[in-house]
Amino acid sequence: MQRSIATPLDRSPTGWLVGDLFGRLRAVLGHMDATHVGLFFVTLALGIYAFSHPSRSGMYDHFVWQADAFWHLRFAIAFPVESGPFTNGYFQDVMPLPSEPGQPSYGLLPFPPLPALLLMPFVGLFGLATDAQLLGVVIGALNVGLAWRMTTRLTDSRAAAFLATLFFAFGTVHWYASMLSTTWFLAHVIAITFVLLGITLALDAERGYRVRRSIPNFRRTTNGPRSALSETFEQSSLFLAWFRRLRQNIDPVQFMAGFVFGIGALARLPVIFGAPFFLFVGGGGSLWKRGLAAGLGAAIPLTVLVVYNLAATGHLFNPAYDYLYRTEYVGYLPPANCLFPADFCAGLQIDRSLGIEDVGHLPLNSLIMLGWLPIYQPECGLQLLNPDCALLQPDPIGMSVLLTSPAYLLAIPLALVGWRRRLVAGSVLALVAIAVINLMHFSQGWVQFGYRFSNDFAPFALILVTLAIAWLVAMRNRLAMALAVALVAASIIINAWGIYWGVIRGW
């Protein structure tokens, strides 16, 4: 029988091995309930995330202090606290507020309030002893289950969804953020929860819309009989007439998708710039209907955030970040860690003449995101894990996202080939919009392993990686499948290496 040229047969040992593994994986997953697979992922991630860093110090727990302030009906935290069983005088990212001599002193945090709100029940029980990092471990593990749930909506290939979820769990800096979950990383982990939920709801809304469209006279048969009195009342009321018209153009699941997605911005504001995704994906049948439903939903938590900022600071935007930008100087070198030419490295510092968000920050920050290399010490020989002298170790400034998670490279050909698909176009636009906003920020998350801001767009990037893996699996080309497995495996190994160094260095 002649074989199609579109599905060449790979006879290499590696190709046969990977093909056999995929076949076995498909067979196993085909007999398992998807919920059980999700529970497996949550349990696996919970164990690995907790084991990765068992000696959590609780040193940076700004949100615990914020939750404590909420319990005392304050927006400002007690700061600086220099004595007693719990202190915070060493905290960064706090704007001190004026106080009279001998009176309690307070400080204002620049962060949105959602992590502190989630911590409030625990702080009510355990006070300032609350382990916020442990909460981050648990939520991070739940995120892996949500990632599995989302990827199964993207492809019928459970093997592709399984591999993509494995990549998200252990091949991206979500692992590092979850196992560490100090203040800044905890915000990322919580934001991802709601972004994953919002995306999944949008995918469900689109599927539901297609089902309804496939049923003849669905609208007429599901609306049910209406009384003449209610019809007359609605027609005589301008408000109800507009409400009815608006209701007919809003998909309720798409509305909830926007609402849940907007809640993520209460943990990490930059994720809201992923909103273009909901113009392309969801229920409603057209760009403006999808956008209207999701936009109305997202407007609710965003309004809450604005009200919170006004109540806490008297400003539309929290002024604490601008204060910190002007008072806490962060230089992105020592230049000795830079592998680029000396003259080039010497200029790689934050330009504080620019604004806190400025396009002038793009060149340096783009280099950190896409091209920053690990510290290279050839005098150490082939030692890779020696804390005193290692050939390679992560730079605390960060590392290129393409080096820490090389499986992201799978998204590039998928985006180029499938850009006409609404799902692909929406994911790419969301990813790019979030990345550009973050790159305009003066700081890129030092100290860290990898590039922690990539957590903000990781759910959208995961969509592209999942579709790319499913595409390679559909080709039934064992060499293509071997490439996908190799990139995911490399991502996991590199992130395990980064976890080791992050814990050893106390980052």
Structure description:
The protein is 60% helix and 2% strand. It has 507 residues and is mainly α. The chain folds into two domains: 13-57 and 132-216 and 236-320 and 372-505, no CATH class; 62-129, no CATH class. Helix 1 packs across helix 22 (478-505), helix 5 runs parallel beside helix 21 and helix 12 (252-264) runs parallel beside helix 14 (287-313).
Topology:
Layout: H1 13-30, H2 34-52, H3 62-71, E1 77-78, E2 95-96, E3 106-108, H4 114-126, H5 132-154, H6 158-170, H7 174-180, H8 183-214, H9 218-223, H10 228-236, H11 238-248, H12 252-264, H13 277-280, H14 287-313, H15 320-327, H16 342-346, H17 362-371, E4 375-376, E5 392-393, H18 401-404, H19 411-417, H20 422-439, H21 458-475, H22 478-505
Antiparallel strand pairs: 1-3, 2-3, 4-5
Helix pairs in contact: 1-22, 2-5, 2-7, 3-4, 5-6, 5-7, 5-8, 5-21, 6-21, 6-22, 7-8, 8-12, 10-11, 12-14, 19-21, 20-21, 21-22
Q: What can be said about this structure in brief?
A:
Helix content is 60%, strand content 2%.
List keywords for this structure.
single chain; 507 residues; mainly alpha; 2 domains; three-stranded antiparallel beta sheet; two-stranded antiparallel sheet; 22 helices; 5 strands; 60% helix; disordered N terminus
Shape: globular
Low-confidence stretches: 1-13
- Rg is 25 Å
* Mean model confidence by pLDDT: 87
Sheet having the most strands: 3 strands, antiparallel
**Count, helices:** 22
Q: How many E strands?
A: 5
Name the helix and strand elements from N-terminus to C-terminus, one letter apiece.
Answer: HHHEEEHHHHHHHHHHHHHHEEHHHHH
Bin the helical content. Answer: 55-70%
Structural class: mainly alpha
